[in-house]
Protein 1
Amino acid sequence: MKKIAILTSGGDAPGMNAAVRAAGKFALNTDLEVYGIKRGYLGMLNDEIFKISSQDLGGIIDRGGTSLLTARCPEFKDPKIRAIAAENLKKRGIDGLIVIGGDGSFHGADLLSKEHGIKVIGIPGTIDNDIAGTDYTIGFDTCLNTILDAIQKVRDTATSHERTILIEVMGRNAGDLALYASMAGGGDGILIPEQDNPIEVLAYQIQQRRRRGKLHDIILVAEGVGSAHTVAEELKKKVHTDVRIVVLGHVQRGGTPSGFDRVLGTKMGAKAVQLLLEEKGCLMIGIEGNQIVTHPIEYAWEGQRRNHMEDYELTQVLSK
Ligand code: F6P
């Protein structure tokens, strides 16, 4: 392997820059030539590919977002489009690619590898923490802390007005952000896509709390369950408390990456280059039991995600 490229794809996540930096620096310290691809697969298609120098990697480790820019690229599902994009790598002699993103981005990487023989390593970068084969994705920890900060502020006003406030957090298919924000933020209830928790139960829990003298509630709603607005409308029919909503939205994706996300991004970035130097491809990197591990890339969507049932039960008990 002589030349490799790095891209970030899908939703940005704090800590992606640490992975780009580590992969880039590690590779430049070997004899590899390193390229950056702007705007993910869209940039690969549009030939927005540039040679990375160490200057491009300075001053980014503490920055949220991604210095390589990112985009969603639905066109990449078309094999003809992938062929054009692959040609843009091949004409430069690039035969190794590091893809930092979520499972949609890994799907694209897998196809690129199978169809065009490019060696690809996936690094899980998404705030959602919805990828199998890793306990944590880059960006999850920072996002969790952003939500905790919001909970603390919302609680001040919820207690003052004795209200029920629903906080909608991101997580299309996974409730990890809602679950762990509730656990760490002392939430009073959660709605997540993995668990059927009918509104009736939530309403009953709120009423029980009122009987015990607790006059406010903070409920975490993962967006995968539906909008907090709809949930609030349903809830209002069943309880007599004042119900309000907060939709945190893209605030959750920004901010200075936490130490954890920087370390995770750094370790994964370096590992990706090591794997390419060993001529390995079609792999994803993860962290399991505090160890950096690798799996076939398909494991991201075919494997079993860590079971959160115990943690879910715990938050249910503690929110009583
Ligand atoms: O990156 C994952 C994610 O943050 C999801 O939680 C959310 O549903 C989605 O991205 C939002 O994407 P976009 O910014 O493209 O609207």
Protein 2
Amino acid sequence: MNPDIEKILYDQAQVEARIDALAETLTQRYQDQFPVVVPVMTGAMIFASLLLQRLDFKLNIDYVDVSSYEDNAESSGRVRLLRDLSHDVTDRPVLIVEDIIDTGHTLKFLDQLFASRGAKSIATCALLDKPSRREVDVDAAYIGFEVPNEFIVGYGLDYNGLYRNLPYIGVLKRSIYE
Ligand code: 5GP
Ligand code: MG
Ligand code: MG
């Protein structure tokens, strides 16, 4: 285990089993829907690639990049769009793929953006949910795991650009960011 990790919450086998189950649910929901699947970079990259290969329906892959954290462990509540879609989502179902839903600001921002463009439906699949931190009400339809109010890394989630490649979901030691 990486020495900066306090504890492992979910190991690789647990995560991949959960992704199998999510993919099965999504495959039922999106048969004949032809959605645009939109991972939010960079945190969702690893989760999205594992999920996408398990989705058995016709889809397009796009992505957005947003920024809300300014290189620290506290959310600012402000969301900026750094990279927009290349697909037109008018009358298309949109499936947002996120690493974690924390305050909910990112999701709310993306929801309003795609709604304003006339998306046919908007749903989110997030690897992790930290409901204790929610500041705005958002509807995350598909969740991998609920996590406690700790700083999580691994499976795409970073601290200052590090730890994204860890093949488990872990809690970062407080001494690293305090
Ligand atoms: P929001 O607060 O807008 O719901 O979450 C915004 C983003 O903050 C998430 O997509 C994720 O990139 C980052 N974030 C929130 N909580 C954590 C966490 O525990 N660990 C890491 N690495 N990133 C987090
Ligand atoms: Mg994110
Ligand atoms: Mg981050």
